[in-house]
Amino acid sequence: MSIADNISNLKKETEHSNVKLIAVSKTKPVEVLQEAYNAGQRVFGENNVQELVEKQEQLPKDIEWHLIGHLQTNKVKYIASFISLIHSVDSLKLLQEIDKQAAKNKRVIDCLLQIYIADEETKFGLGFDEAIELLRSEEFTVLKNVRIVGVMGIATNTENQKQLKEEFYELHTFFNGLKTSFFRKEDSFKEISMGMSADYKIAIEQGSTMIRVGSLIFGQRLIPHWKNN
Ligand SMILES: *Cc1c(COP(=O)(O)O)cnc(C)c1O
């Protein structure tokens, strides 16, 4: 299967669900991204700032770049002029720096709050309470150059479908709560970024609006799992 085939299959499979496909191209060389671009893909996700900047410089300028991995505050300045969406906001401090760099570039940067949903030890993501505390804080309300457009979550790396379903359900429910409490009047607060190669189907069933798919598009798979059923 070619990259073009993989993208086209994913698009066909998800067209009924109004979900945005983010091609996660981390570690892949620009030629490979160009191949996806030629197949019509315009949204790419990267998790490393330096790699993202290098690729952005070399590839067509109508690409929408998403940062999906952990972002250090001292690196925000490198992507602030062009980044379309930062999925991985996990602290007020980071949000303040994004706001500052966005202002320097005279723009507003869209962000998702990364919410911790997995049953795993991980360093990144906000707990439900922490996210609420951030949104309630005086420091957050004064920020003018960032816009929170939704939430992002990474489910546990497990084949337990019931558990995946519960984790995605929890994130959707939390999103609904935030919508009601903080963003009732903001139509832009509408994104739930959840689902990767192994679990995007369940994520879509649970209301995902953005799936972040890497290996299923770019990786070698002898039997792509959409052919298994
Ligand atoms: C790598 C990565 C993905 C894509 O993973 P695949 O299993 O290759 O689809 C999605 N989200 C995040 C945050 C990632 O780091």
UniProtKB/TrEMBL annotation:
Write out the entry's keywords from A to Z. Pyridoxal phosphate
> Which residues does the UniProt record annotate as the domain Alanine racemase N-terminal?
3-220
Q: Name one GO molecular function term.
A: pyridoxal phosphate binding
Q: Would the keyword Glycoprotein be found if you checked this record's keyword annotation?
A: no
Cofactor section: pyridoxal 5'-phosphate
Q: List residues traversing the bilayer.
A: none
Give all N6-(pyridoxal phosphate)lysine modified positions: K26
The record, for InterPro entries, names: Ala_racemase_N (IPR001608), PLP-binding_barrel (IPR029066), PyrdxlP_homeostasis (IPR011078)
Zinc listed as a keyword? no
Q: Which PANTHER family match?
A: PROLINE SYNTHETASE CO-TRANSCRIBED BACTERIAL HOMOLOG PROTEIN (PTHR10146), PYRIDOXAL PHOSPHATE HOMEOSTASIS PROTEIN (PTHR10146:SF14)
HAMAP family attached here?
A: PLP_homeostasis
Q: In UniProt terms, what function does this protein have?
A: Pyridoxal 5'-phosphate (PLP)-binding protein, which is involved in PLP homeostasis.
Query: What family does the Swiss-Prot or TrEMBL record give for this protein?
Result: Belongs to the pyridoxal phosphate-binding protein YggS/PROSC family.
Q: What is this protein called?
A: Pyridoxal phosphate homeostasis protein
The organism's lineage? Bacteria, Pseudomonadati, Bacteroidota, Sphingobacteriia, Sphingobacteriales
